[in-house]
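ARCHIVE CARD
CATEGORY: sequence design from structure
SOURCE FIELD: tokenized fold
FIELD CONTENT:
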């Protein structure tokens, strides 16, 4: 087996391309976007991802790109401080970094780009698997045959849809929505994430790098016929959820009203009973994630390395895919269980819950 097609040049896709090439395979990566963008939501590289990025020689690059946040401050509706917590970086865990997601993706892409083929501005349109390979058609490139196809194309994976079926069967709404947007100006404090809560709603300003990032995370039931691409509807949902709140929320909503460049989605857990069908498999968010609060980036990096190692360590592809899934599921399962607790801390449901959380933040180390 030599030719592997990876759909998605995100966190998992580029990491996988790097390690497959290192192990002597020929990876091709197809990415829907036209190129790699910078900035974006800050994500953590920690736990099982740390040895992977260190083995790729990327630890220094990631530290250079890291955000400078050392604390998380809770404020009330008038902006008065309630509590302040230190981040892992401030507690001396230098190997764990927080990096804007697109910068992380760009660093991983650069590491993989010299030994893998990248096709930007394209997408898979059909997959025809047979016993020992897959015939693939693209939107733009000519059809090709690959020995293995890997879906690393995120929460709304096209490979998963084509090979496993409609995403409604695999995405489970977790009762939260998230919206983020770049404010185009620096935060007042370059080292602190500021959080403001009302029952069931969180608004925050993250210094990110240079351009502060506003995030809204709020509770809500599943919305009938929710479409993750319907920007106008997303704006309306977020504006309604935050109407009448204090702190800097009115100014953040003004920014939301006037931008078209914001991220919005339902927070979901992806649960796929088996990650592989013949010569097609899934990695990263496409296979298993909690799309927020679940260490998705770190698990995407770790899962990609585990998949590459399993393919290198087995003659039989089916054995390799089983081994990858068995090993990586052990890391994923606890994250999927812990998300409700994390959500309870970050977005308490009631006024009493907000008060209790604030007290805990003041007294806990
Ligand atoms: C607001 C927010 C905050 C987050 N914070 C954190 C955090 O603090 N810590 C953390 O660990 N994780 C965090 N995450 C989660 C993290 O971003 C994801 O888990 C992680 O990016 C998953 O990596 P991935 O490679 O599987 O998918 P992605 O990074 O989503 O990459 C998928 C890639 O596939 C491409 N693609 C999609 N469809 C196609 C297609 N049809 N054809 C070709 N290419 C395609 C996309 O353009 C993208 O490049 C956060 C997520 C969000 C939304």
């Amino acid at each position: 087996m030599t030719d592997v097609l990876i759909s998605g040049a995100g966190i998992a896709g580029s990491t996988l391309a790097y390690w497959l090439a290192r192990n002597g395979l020929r990876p091709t990566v197809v990415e829907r976007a036209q190129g790699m963008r910078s900035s974006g939501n800050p994500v953590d590289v920690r736990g099982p991802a740390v040895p992977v990025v260190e083995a790729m020689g990327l630890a220094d690059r990631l530290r250079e790109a890291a955000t400078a946040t050392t604390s998380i401050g809770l404020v009330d509706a008038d902006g008065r401080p309630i509590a302040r917590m230190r981040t892992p970086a401030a507690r001396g865990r230098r190997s764990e970094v927080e990096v804007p997601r697109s910068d992380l993706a760009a660093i991983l892409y650069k590491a993989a780009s010299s030994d893998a083929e990248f096709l930007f501005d394209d997408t898979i349109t059909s997959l025809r698997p047979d016993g020992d390979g897959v015939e693939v058609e693209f939107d733009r490139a000519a059809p090709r045959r690959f020995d293995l196809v890997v879906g690393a194309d995120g929460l709304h994976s096209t490979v998963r849809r084509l090979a496993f079926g409609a995403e409604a069967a695999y995405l489970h709404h977790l009762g939260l929505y998230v919206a983020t947007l770049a404010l185009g100006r620096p935060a007042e404090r370059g080292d602190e994430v500021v959080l403001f809560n009302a029952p069931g709603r969180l608004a925050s300003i993250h210094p990110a790098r240079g351009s502060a990032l506003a995030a809204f995370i709020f509770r809500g039931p599943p919305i009938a016929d929710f479409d993750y691409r319907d920007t106008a509807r997303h704006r309306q949902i977020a504006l309604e959820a935050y109407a009448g709140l204090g702190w800097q929320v009115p100014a953040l909503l003004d920014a939301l009203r006037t931008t078209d460049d914001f991220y919005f989605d339902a927070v979901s857990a992806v649960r796929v009973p088996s990650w592989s069908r013949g010569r097609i498999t899934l990695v990263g968010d496409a296979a298993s994630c909690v799309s927020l609060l679940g260490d998705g980036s770190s698990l995407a990096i770790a899962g990609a390395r585990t998949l590459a190692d399993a393919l290198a360590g087995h003659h039989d592809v089916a054995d390799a895919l089983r081994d990858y899934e068995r090993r990586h599921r052990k890391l994923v399962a606890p994250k999927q269980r812990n998300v409700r607790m994390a959500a309870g801390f970050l977005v308490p449901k009631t006024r009493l819950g907000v008060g209790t959380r604030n007290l805990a933040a003041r007294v806990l180390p």
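CARD ANNOTATION: The chain has a mean pLDDT of 93. The chain has ten helices and 19 strands.
SHELF: design records, drawer C
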